[in-house]
Design brief:
The protein has 220 residues and is mainly alpha-helical. It is built from 8 helices and 3 strands; from the N terminus they run H-H-E-E-E-H-H-H-H-H-H. The chain has a 3-stranded mixed sheet.
């Protein structure tokens, strides 16, 4: 177990580290590029919401690296830079989060599926490893496989997240393409959102690799 687990750890560590390095590098690069429109993130968010008629949802100023759409309150949170600065990164981030708001307003299917998985993931992610290890050490194979099934729920969540995030970026970029004031920011925004999408791809890939490892481990 030790050698194979070390190999899995190194592979997943490299994938996660490399993706995070690329994301940080790209966001920092375009955070220093002013938006052609001169809009801040909150201005871009409000303009996009108005264009698509989803209402003027609250846009909150969050903490550092806190960018998300919250379906429970139907609100958007942007980190201080994305909220108030007029950079390509700010505008791209804001339009992406409004993309999620548009998904919610339309009842986008994959967003609904992801929301349904959240309670299950919150439960299984705290218990799966205990079940797997207890099942192996106690010789209770059924218990170990139950732990594997629990972890598979988290893997499914990561996989389902991909189309949700890709579609939100597609919506944000489509709005920028349609809006003359933001067309000059489009190329940079594509790079920013592609970099951000890489983190979700990496998370999904890591979870699949780890699931395959634990399946093999229980089989042995």
């Amino acid at each position: 177990m030790e050698t194979s687990y070390l190999l899995v750890f190194l592979i997943t560590f490299f994938i996660g580290g490399a993706s995070q390095w690329y994301v940080t590098k790209t966001l920092r690069q375009y955070s220093s590029v002013p938006s052609c429109s001169g809009w801040s993130g909150v201005q871009a968010a409000n303009a996009m919401m108005a264009r698509y008629g989803i209402g003027q949802l609250p846009v909150h100023r969050g903490r550092e690296n806190e960018d998300h759409f919250d379906p429970t309150t139907n609100s958007i949170t942007l980190d201080p830079h994305a909220y108030g600065e007029d950079s390509v990164t700010s505008v791209a981030t804001a339009c992406h989060e409004v993309g999620h708001a548009c998904q919610f307003a339309e009842g986008y299917t994959m967003m609904k599926v992801r929301a349904l998985l959240v309670p299950a993931v919150n439960f299984t992610q705290r218990t799966w490893i205990i079940l797997v290890l207890a099942g192996v050490f106690l010789g209770m194979t059924g218990l170990a496989w139950l732990g594997i099934a629990f972890y598979a729920v988290a893997v499914l969540f990561h996989v389902v997240t991909l189309p949700v995030e890709f579609d939100a970026s597609r919506r944000g970029l489509a709005y920028m393409q349609e809006t003359g004031a933001l067309q000059g920011d489009l190329a940079g925004a594509q790079k920013v959102l592609r970099a951000c999408a890489l983190t979700y791809v990496a998370a999904a890939l890591i979870s699949v690799i780890e699931l395959m490892y634990w399946i093999q481990y229980v089989r042995e």
